[in-house]
Write a structure and sequence with these properties.
By secondary structure, this protein is mainly β. Among the domains are: 3-168, no CATH class; 211-331, Methylamine Dehydrogenase, Chain H, CATH 2.130.10.10. Helix content is 3%, strand content 55%. The protein is built from one helix and 42 strands. Strands 2, 3, 5, 7, 8 and 10 form a six-stranded antiparallel β-sheet that branches. The chain has a five-stranded mixed β-sheet with strand order 4-6-1-11-14, with no helix packed on it. The longest helix has 13 residues, at 3-15. The protein starts with a helix and ends with a strand.
Length: 471
């Protein structure tokens, strides 16, 4: 990490008219090399502060030697009334490794709501310092949580005197963990699926996309597509403990794991292949050529067959995992994107990018046995193992279709905030988790009420979601 990079950051501050009122990250963030990353979340506002509104001018990390490095502000104007009970991703920073004593916050303006309207408060010229030592480690990400104190934020009715506290990540029971890969941010957001609060951030190699969890061994596997790497995360430690480097330009984008957790399939979109991987040794056992543009894979409940969706070939490659080869190729309508098994494991439901139909494949005959009209724009699919209901997320309209698996008809609709790019089901808590990349958001939806119960901010390019306890 050189002084040149910091000089470049400071230039951006100057020419953007302030210290980053919006994110200036490129679509694909550069990898961490000699630096570490810190993600700053603002904790839910206290009820006592609900009449406050303020604008942040800049946030800086203070190193032990006094050197200050700027954060990139994600949100600069904060209305406390809108943040009661809501956690907000506030800022990020790429920092040199070392020990930091805390952060400083400079405010531009502050207001308090009265019966006559908003009244401007006096803001101090000097930044507010929030002391809390934290470490920055090379090529690692860490998370800090900023809390506004409940009292003492306004003095004499005219002065803005906020008090803040800062905390680092704490340990959470691993059975409550959930994970979101953020392909454009190069990190995984770790959240508590019960409270829907972000609890940690894990830096990865470039382009984390596909995600699979071995529930028995408490291991998470991540496909870092732009680096051609599969990374292994110890769920207990919250750290990457192993890596498997695939061939150059394999571009693994999706992962599927057998029920026993022993074998994993990596979908290599760049070379039209899949890698069969032994998860205990993290050795690539075989590489199998499939159709053009493989997009995803699912493994049947027996653990013996993998079904690979080939978008550009309009086919599905059926792979025998014991023989390690393609046994059958099934032609389907459109460009198959994702698939899910019915709860009995006798049918495969397939959505296509440019087809208005959901294809139903009979797994005994390996042929398309039915088609269900769902309209264009299907993007994600998941089956609830308890009820058998099929959930299909759409590209536009902010909706998830609910389909009866027996009558094969549309029966309900769930509204979400945007493009439902990925869906998973938490069987324990009876919730849907939906990744919405265009809003940088993860939403939790109660399956029974079909209402959004909560949401959290995640990173750029949210791709896949997985939670402990899912099937």
């Amino acid at each position: 990490m050189s002084a040149l990079r910091y000089f470049f950051i400071l230039l951006l501050c100057v020419f953007s008219g302030g210290c980053f009122s919006q994110e200036v990250l490129s679509r694909h963030k550069a990898p961490l090399l000699q630096e570490g990353e810190v993600v700053l979340y603002l904790q839910p506002m206290p009820q006592e502060a609900q009449k406050l509104r303020f604008i942040i001018d800049g946030i800086f990390a203070i190193r032990d030697d006094g050197f200050e490095s700027p954060f990139i502000l994600i949100k600069d104007e904060l209305n406390a009334a809108e943040l009661i009970g809501v956690q907000k991703r506030l800022a990020t920073a790429i920092l040199p490794p070392g020990i930091y004593s805390g952060i400083s916050i400079r405010f531009k303006q502050a207001f308090i709501q009265t019966e006559e309207g908003d009244v401007a408060l006096l803001v101090a010229d000097e930044p507010i310092r929030v002391k809390r030592p934290f470490d920055v480690t090379r090529r690692k990400a860490s998370t800090l949580f900023l809390s506004l104190n409940a009292a003492g934020n306004v003095k004499a009715g005219v002065r803005f005197t906020p008090g803040f506290s800062l905390a680092s990540s704490g340990r959470v029971l691993i059975n409550l963990n959930g994970y979101v890969t953020n392909a454009d941010s190069n990190f995984i957001t770790v959240f508590n699926k019960k409270t829907m609060r972000v609890v940690d951030t894990i830096a990865t190699s470039q382009g984390p996309m596909g995600l699979a969890i071995d529930q028995l061994r408490a291991r998470a596997y991540v496909a870092a597509s732009r680096d051609d790497i599969i990374e292994v995360i110890d769920v207990f430690k919250g750290q990457i403990i192993n890596r498997l480097r695939l061939n150059l330009k394999d571009r693994p984008i999706e992962l599927a794991i057998t029920p026993d957790g022993r074998t994993m399939v990596a979908v290599n979109n760049g070379t039209n292949t899949v890698s069969i991987i032994d998860t205990l040794s993290m050795i690539e056992l075989a590489k199998i050529r499939v159709g053009e543009g493989p997009a995803s894979a699912v493994i049947d409940p027996s653990g013996f067959r993998a079904f690979v969706m080939n978008e550009r070939s309009s086919t599905i490659s059926v792979i025998d995992l014991t023989q390690r080869g393609v046994s059958v190729t099934i032609g389907v309508e459109g460009s198959p994107l994702r698939a899910a098994f019915n709860r009995e494991g006798s049918k495969l439901f397939v959505i296509s990018r440019n087809s208005p139909n959901l294809s139903v494949i009979d797994l005994a005959r390996l042929t398309v046995s039915a088609k269900v009209f769902i309209g264009l724009g299907a993007l994600s699919i998941k089956v609830d193992d308890l009820t058998g209901l099929i959930y299909v997320g759409k590209r536009s309209g902010g909706e998830i279709m609910v389909i009866d698996p027996f009558a094969l008809v549309f029966i309900d609709m769930i509204r979400v905030a945007g493009r439902a790019a990925f869906i998973t089901v938490d069987e324990e808590e009876r919730n849907l988790f939906v990744a919405i990349p265009d809003k940088k958001m993860l939403q939790k939806i109660n399956i029974t009420s079909k209402k959004i119960s909560s949401k959290i901010d995640v990173g750029e390019g949210a791709f896949a979601v997985a939670v402990m306890g899912e099937r």
